[in-house]
Write a structure and sequence with these properties.
Belongs to the ROK (NagC/XylR) family. InterPro entries: ATPase_NBD, ROK, WH-like_DNA-bd_sf, WH_DNA-bd_sf. One of its GO terms (molecular function) is kinase activity. The chain is α/β, with parallel strands linked by helices. It contains 12 helices and 15 strands. The protein has 3 domains: 76 residues, Arc Repressor Mutant, subunit A (Orthogonal Bundle); 136 residues, Nucleotidyltransferase, domain 5 (2-Layer Sandwich), CATH 3.30.420; 175 residues, 2-Layer Sandwich (Nucleotidyltransferase, domain 5). Helix content is 39%, strand content 19%.
């Protein structure tokens, strides 16, 4: 069982873990390649491979190309024996993924967060979904090596508590002991971390080349979440110290709108759905013409979906406002690049994914500012490769890392 690889107590188990990780990262791979990468004796390596085969942790996966003589057997990890669950609890949805050991999505389900989405209803959904996923594939609980949860901070990671996130559509999300509740039902490892941290991990492992060590990840939706990887290390020591206000409070326009933090013109006020809606509604109430008012009695009823539709139709108010938001967001991105020296910026969430003008304006603004400061500095911008699954995949990945890293 893979759980024995956590803090292995014997040289044999340590060697098994080392060989297993080589096969996991490089497989399908030949025995000679494993020997080369581990620098172990041929007899030792052969014995370890036999042990891993007997435990069902690896499989023979075809025949390789011969360099002379018998064609070599290829080895790969057995992805049909063990599984993890990845969960993303955000302000807009809760997502549950069943993952194999290569972090491929085997099954998924999501639950839209609204005023009725109390902690109890959300956790009930998570529990019933896990049961359904395991039962439908005849997976026993002892095949589940762990559950990873990515959630909106602030968190108490050690105690497994979601502390007090702002702008959740439902009340009662205060000191939610999500790990403790799930642990009563599942006797497996359960880990809680920030959803933005888990998204960074997933994008680094699956969305980008793992050789890229300096990465910033921004999720812009109802709120703003920022994750940073520097020299292949996730910077998360301060993730919970920001408190419920979050991390998007770099001031980029001192004459801007008042932010929830009490300051003016924060990054947060130019990159979130709440402030975009508030800005457009304010202008409508001041009499600015827009197709948004057609058949609408109260401007306060406008939704983000309405804004997306009006923008696609070329509505002047939406085009001007979204472009303005994109410009100031671009300033914030260029500031981040200047401070963090990121090679890649992954831009995700509804603001970037649904509003192409916002994404394009932000990227153009940031690129122009950086090229003036640092000619030749080639920064890459991209939308998240994993989309809305990123945080949940990364949460499931945490469980594997717990046992294997």
């Amino acid at each position: 069982m893979i759980t024995q690889f956590k803090d292995p107590g014997s040289p044999k188990v340590r060697n098994m873990k080392h060989v297993y990780n080589i096969i996991r990262k490089h497989g399908p791979v030949t025995k000679s390649s494993i020997i080369e990468k581990t620098a172990q004796k041929q007899t030792t390596c052969a014995r370890i491979i036999d042990d891993l085969l007997q435990e069902g942790l690896i499989i023979e996966s075809g025949i390789g190309i011969s360099s002379g003589g018998r064609k070599p057997v290829m080895y790969a990890i057995n992805t049909n024996q063990l599984f993890s669950i990845g969960i993303d609890i955000s302000r807009t949805f809760t997502k549950v993924l069943l993952l194999d050991l290569h972090l491929n999505v085997i099954d998924e389900a999501s639950f839209q967060m609204n005023k009725e989405s109390t902690p109890k209803k959300t956790i009930d959904f998570i529990q019933s979904t896990i049961v359904q996923m395991l039962n439908s594939r005849n997976i026993e609980q002892d095949q589940l090596i762990g559950i990873g949860i990515g959630a909106v901070e602030p968190l108490d990671r050690e105690k497994g508590i979601i502390v007090d996130p702002v702008n959740f559509p439902s009340d009662h999300w205060n000191n939610v002991k999500v790990v403790e509740v799930l642990q009563k039902k599942y006797s497996t490892k359960i880990i809680l971390d920030s959803g933005i941290n888990t998204a960074v991990l997933a994008e680094h492992k699956l969305g980008l080349n793992e050789e890229i060590g300096n990465l910033s990840y921004i999720i812009a939706g109802v709120g703003l979440r920022i994750g940073v990887m520097n020299d292949h290390r996730l910077l998360k020591s301060d993730a919970d110290r920001f408190g419920k206000l979050g991390s998007g409070h770099m001031v980029i326009n001192t004459n801007g709108k008042k932010c929830i933090c009490g300051d003016y013109g924060c990054f947060h006020t130019y990159s979130t759905i709440l402030y975009l809606k508030a800005n457009i509604i304010h202008q409508l109430k001041r009499g600015h013409p827009s197709i948004l008012t057609e058949g609408l009695e109260d401007p306060d009823d406008i939704t983000f979906e309405d804004i997306c539709t009006a923008l696609e139709a070329g509505d002047d108010l939406c085009v001007t406002t979204v472009r303005d938001f994109g410009f100031f967001t671009g300033i914030a991105l260029s500031n981040m690049i200047t401070m963090l020296h990121s090679d890649y910026l992954v831009l995700s969430g509804p603001m970037f994914n649904r509003l192409d003008l916002f994404f394009e304006t932000a990227v153009t603004t940031a690129s122009n500012r950086i090229s003036k400061l640092y000619p030749g500095y080639d920064v890459k911008f991209k939308k998240g490769h994993l989309g809305e699954n990123a945080a949940a995949i990364g949460a499931g990945s945490m469980v594997l890392d717990y046992y294997l890293e």
